[in-house]
Amino acid sequence: xxxxxxxxxxxxxxxxxxxxxxxxxxxxxxxxxxxxxxxxxxxxxxxxxxxxxxxxxxxxxxxxxxxxxxxxxxxxxxxxxxxxxxxxxxxxxxxxxxxxxxxxxxxxxxxxxxxxxxxxxxxxxxxxxxxxxxxxxxxxxxxxxxxxxxxxxxxxxxxxxxxxxxxxxxxxxxxxxxx
Length: 179
Description:
Blueprint: H1 24-40, H2 56-61, E1 71-78, E2 81-86, E3 96-99, H3 103-115, E4 129-132, H4 140-152, E5 157-160, H5 165-173
Parallel strand pairs: 1-4, 4-5
Antiparallel strand pairs: 1-2, 2-3
Helix pairs in contact: 3-4
């Protein structure tokens, strides 16, 4: 606590002493507050993207058909680039190179084209179906960027598919070097 020392009244001159303040309790209180806020504060929580896996039995019992035009296959190849082609089959695929930031606009445009399909098609046919085939040089960040583009386009139908030898041959034909 603060102590104030005052000379007794009376004889001679009056001596004024300097005010002496003891800051120890204030420092103790500061450290107690720091400790309190450290223990009560929650640190940044990890963000997890939920990925729903299909039930294998229901997929066999109720197959869903949609046109090839409603499907886009994306192959991230690293360095923030990817190749994409329309449809599932790689027989007649014409892969096109694009950057991952431009992918969200591409998916939004594809969703608009799918909504313009005839109404005689099923509900699933009016949605974009995205197949993601991570290449051998793609990174985890590329996959996250594709998930972000899918989220921006509000695409609910997407899957991660294995990258095959046929896919690598198609990329080589398109001019991509696998080395």
